[in-house]
Specification:
Distance between the termini: 62 Å
Strand content: 15-25%
Structural class: alpha/beta
Helix content: 25-40%
Strand order of the largest sheet: 4-3-2-5-6-9-7
Bound molecules: S-adenosylmethionine
Number of domains: 2
Radius of gyration: 21 Å
Oligomer: single chain
Largest sheet: 7 strands, mixed
CATH architecture of the largest domain: 3-Layer(aba) Sandwich
């Protein structure tokens, strides 16, 4: 690569354009080149792929994505960073930069032209809205084949958690219903400018083309999951019967739990995804 084409480091972009990280947007820019490369490697991006990047920041990851993907759609909320990104990415003709809030964007509309290619999400997410972004990507049934994201380590652990552990909850179940999660790398605060207060991890979600567990009634299953973990310390029967939005009769819940083969005082955290899927059918 010629000197001219060599991508500037995050530190160089920050000082050349006078970028000031905005806390309100969760701006912790990734500086470590090995970590940036690792994110691209585990995403297994090919020229046939379209990549959706959420939160391009100073463009460190975006540039690498442009080198590997057929097309990159990069969303950034901070309008001050748009001219920086335009300049940093000027050598790439396969990037579409969108100024906007990913939570408000109509992603289906945005991606409808891309349906012929495989669409992957790759992002170093803003931590203040990690969960709503993940849920939007999964629940809107968008045609992604994988989602590779940097998130807080603690949230990655919750997503991967199994029944009966303290980390297990509605987020684990919701993500595991749609995808197979894998923590591929732990990343210390020293890899970012400014340093976040928490440890981070790169998580890859392999989206199921066909879900191994299919709920008879998905909407009810997700309500049951929310109800079960809304009051974690209660028995499942009490948690579900007290949950607003679920109008269930106690004897029906007790009977369904018995059919599942669980003891009457079982708590939600002891139920697997398969149990919740069956419960939605029984109720
Ligand atoms: N990708 C860059 C990197 O790896 O250095 C920046 C990552 S930084 C953790 C998160 C980025 O998401 C910031 O640039 C921030 O401005 C942007 N962001 C925050 N909220 C957003 C939102 N609602 N929609 C789109 N981008 C957002």
């Amino acid at each position: 690569m010629s000197e001219e084409n060599k991508q500037m480091t995050t530190g160089e972009v920050i000082s050349r354009y006078g970028v000031r990280a905005q806390k309100k947007y969760g701006q912790n820019f990734l500086t470590d080149r090995n970590v940036l490369q690792k994110i691209v490697d585990v995403s297994e991006i090919t020229p046939e792929d379209t990549v959706l990047e959420i939160g391009s920041g100073t463009g460190a990851l975006t540039g690498l994505l442009c080198k590997n993907a057929g097309k990159v759609i990069a969303v950034e909320i901070d309008k001050k960073l748009i001219p920086v990104l335009e300049d940093v990415l000027r050598e790439y003709d396969n990037v579409r930069l969108i100024e906007g809030d990913v939570l408000k964007l109509d992603l289906k509309e945005l991606l409808k032209m891309e349906e012929k290619s495989s669409i992957k999400v790759v992002a170093n997410l803003p931590y203040y809205i990690t969960t709503p972004i993940i849920m939007k990507l999964l629940e809107e049934r968008l045609p992604f084949t994988s989602i590779t994201i940097m998130i807080q380590k603690e949230v990655a652990d919750r997503i991967k958690a199994v029944p009966g552990t303290k980390d297990y909850g509605s987020l684990s179940l919701a993500v595991q219903y749609f995808s197979k999660p894998d923590i591929v790398l732990s990343v210390p605060p020293s890899c970012f400018i400014p340093r976040p207060k928490v440890g981070s991890a790169v998580l890859k979600l392999g989206i199921y083309a066909e879900k191994p567990i299919q709920a008879e009634n998905e909407e009810l299953m997700f309500k049951l999951i929310r109800g079960a973990f809304n009051q974690r310390r209660k028995t499942l029967v009490n948690a579900l019967c007290n949950y607003e939005g679920l109008e269930l009769k106690k004897e029906n819940v007790e009977r369904a739990i018995e059919i599942l083969g669980k003891k009457p005082a079982v708590r939600g955290e002891e139920l697997s995804l398969e149990d919740f899927a069956r419960l939605s059918g029984l109720l």
